[in-house]
Design a protein that fits this description.
The complex is a heterodimer of chains A (about 200) and B (about 200).
Chain A lengths: L3 E8 L3 E3 L37 H11 L3 E5 H6 L13 E4 L13 E4 L2 H12 L4 E4 L1 H10 L4 E7 L1 E2 L4 E2 L9 E11 L2 E8 L4
Chain B lengths: L3 E8 L3 E3 L28 H10 L3 E5 H6 L13 E4 L12 E4 L2 H12 L4 E4 L1 H9 L5 E7 L1 E2 L4 E2 L9 E10 L11 E7 L3
Parallel strand pairs in B: 1-6, 1-7, 3-4, 3-6, 4-5
Antiparallel strand pairs in B: 2-9, 7-11, 10-11
The chains are: A alpha/beta (about 200), B alpha/beta (about 200).
Chain lengths: ~200, ~200
């Protein structure tokens, strides 16, 4: 069955972007460091330069590319310039946003949805047997709070970046128990995959 | 020379206590969840190994808050090894047991290294960790990463400058799946790279 999986690169001190993230500086100041494990060259085109990946990094990236739909927060989506309307393989992208954008979306595969559970359900329908890739800190937090996030794939990058955007910044004080499904070390990163233990 | 190594248990969302930590509630609300892995400290496995390594350190550096919240460890953190407490204001009452107060972070690191000799130094507490990091005196991190999101609490890494500190992974020890889910933990050791 299709599962919703958060994929995020995070520093050991919990950041997913450096400070001052803005369009044109989508990962914040020096935030590219967090993506070096799959994209060593900051200027390279992200979809044409993954052939160098090996081992666990290759395996995890293959999983990403095998997902059948994307759910992403509007901020992350816009900071990434909408990935040109195609995150990978032309799969449908559901952008979580309180308001419809004006003007209408430029890209045919992009749908704006105002509520996280609805976004996940639509994405799962479109993904069929494949998993749904979830992206963005706020979307992750909303999905966790709503109980609609199944797994977290954290790419833990061995660096302290000091300041920036935390992945888990503003959550209620309720514990969310996780189960480690897999830990794998690739060059320059440790991949930790957790399942949300819904029963506790 | 002695390695100065931070030993801290941290939730996946980066907290080392729950919210509202205080002397009466040293781990904050619900924060003792983080220590469930220590139930396995005497059972065969990675957690026993890591715990034994921590107990083999021959000096402790702690921040004042951690020290007070831990009720000053009654003056003995483990085996009577010297405890160097970093504080801005040295208390008037004499320090208990093997405790010494130090106000300068470099001086504190030097004294702890000297006391530990050929063994290692354990650092405890977010404040001490950050002070040592900023002073370039922390050598390694041993993070016990617990599979839980606490949501709120005291962050281990907070208030650091926006300068990258590169880490070299040294070791990852993961507890076997047969154990009780809340006792699972991933022990991550990093060496702090000098610029």
């Amino acid at each position: 069955m299709s599962r919703t999986v958060l994929y995020m690169s995070m520093s050991v001190d919990g950041f997913i972007a450096g400070p001052n993230a803005a369009p044109g500086n989508g990962l914040g100041d020096n935030g590219h460091r967090l993506h070096e494990w799959f994209l060593p060259d900051a200027d390279a085109d992200r979809r044409s330069d993954l052939g160098h990946l090996a081992g666990a990094n290759r395996e995890v990236m293959d999983e990403v590319l095998a997902t059948g739909a994307v759910v992403v927060g509007r901020r992350t989506f816009e900071l990434a310039d909408g990935w040109g309307g195609d995150h990978h393989g032309g799969v449908p992208i559901f952008v979580l946003s309180r308001h419809q954008p004006d003007p209408e979306p430029r890209w045919p595969g992009v749908t704006y949805v105002s509520e996280v559970t609805a976004a996940m359900n639509m994405a799962k329908d479109m993904a069929g047997d494949k998993n749904v890739l979830v992206h963005g800190a706020r979307t992750a937090q909303l999905a966790l709070a709503a109980g609609v996030l199944d797994e977290l794939q954290i790419h833990l990058v061995p660096v302290l970046i000091g300041q920036g955007e935390p992945l888990f910044g503003d959550m209620p004080p309720d514990h969310i128990e996780l189960e480690l499904l897999r830990a794998a070390d690739g060059p320059g990163v440790t991949h930790l995959r957790y399942r949300v233990r819904a029963e506790v | 020379m002695a390695v100065i190594r931070l030993y801290m248990t941290m939730s996946l969302d980066g907290y080392v206590t729950g919210p509202q930590d205080s002397p009466d509630t040293p781990m904050g609300i619900g924060g003792f969840r983080l220590f469930d892995w220590l139930d396995r400290r005497n059972a065969p496995g990675p957690s026993r190994q890591v715990y034994a390594e921590a107990q083999a350190t021959r000096a402790v550096i702690a921040g004042r808050r951690t020290y007070e919240h831990a009720d000053r460890w009654q003056g003995d953190h483990h085996d009577g090894v010297p405890i160097f407490v970093l504080t801005h204001n040295v208390p008037d009452d004499p320090p208990p047991g093997s405790v010494r107060y130090v106000t300068d972070v470099r001086e504190c690191a030097a004294q702890a290294r000297a006391a530990a000799g050929d063994n290692d130094v354990m650092v405890h507490g977010a404040g001490a960790a950050q002070a040592l990091l900023r002073a370039g005196q922390l050598d390694e991190l041993e993070l016990h990463l617990v599979p839980v999101l606490l949501g709120q609490g005291r962050r281990l890494f907070d208030d650091l400058p926006a300068e990258h500190i590169e880490l070299d992974p040294v070791r990852r020890l993961t507890t076997p799946q047969v154990e009780e889910p809340t006792q699972h933990v991933t022990h991550l050791r990093y060496r702090i790279r000098r610029p």
